[in-house]
Design a protein that fits this description.
single chain, 2 helices, 28% helix, rod-shaped
Length: 191
């Protein structure tokens, strides 16, 4: 086997060398060429950014137009009266709304203190009398309780609770705002 290898080496040594390529070193680009390349790359980036922004605007406009077409028109009933735009006078003196916290079972109910009762007629003659017996006011709206006498029956109501067609709208230290039907009025406790 060594004789074969030696014969191959001899043959390679007799053959003239193949042409070898000589790499010519590349010239360094001039400053003008570098500047031109940088300006070209920056301008391509700006053009691509502008195209992406325009595409974003077109897509968002199309989505807005599609969403506005999807909303159904509000149904206006001829039977329901339009809500009044006038602000009730009691709204200016009411406290701002607060979060409601439910009473826990461990918290005992407070006893009702009896006071002399002053009668207030809710609306004209012939309507039942609503009397404020006591106001248990608290800064926490969930703990506010008004004790009312409705046609002689004593009831304790929190805000937004109702009894016999009377709903307690707001309990304030100086009075209770109640609603009967569409009328809202304030009842003051006896002094």
């Amino acid at each position: 086997m060594s004789s074969i290898l030696e014969a191959l080496r001899e043959l390679e040594g007799r053959r003239p060398p193949t042409t070898q390529s000589i790499a010519i070193p590349a010239e360094q680009p001039t400053a003008v060429n570098r500047t031109t390349q940088v300006v070209g790359i920056v301008s391509i980036g700006l053009v691509l950014g502008a195209l992406a922004f325009l595409l974003f605007l077109a897509v968002s406009g199309a989505l807005r137009a599609f969403a506005s077409r999807e909303r159904p028109a509000p149904i206006v009933s001829a039977e329901a009266p339009a809500p009044s735009r006038a602000r009730p006078a009691w709204l200016e003196t009411a406290d701002p709304p607060r979060a409601r916290v439910e009473r826990t079972a461990a918290e005992p109910a407070r006893p009702v203190a009896e006071r002399p009762v002053r009668a207030a007629r809710a609306d004209g003659a012939g309507s039942s009398a609503i009397e404020v017996a006591d106001i248990d006011y608290s800064p926490d709206a969930a703990r506010r309780v008004a004790t009312l006498r409705l046609d002689g029956a004593v009831v304790r109501l929190h805000e937004r609770q109702s009894e016999q067609g009377i709903e307690v709208q707001s309990i304030q230290p100086d009075g209770v705002y109640v609603r009967r039907g569409a009328d809202v009025f304030m009842l003051a406790p006896p002094r």
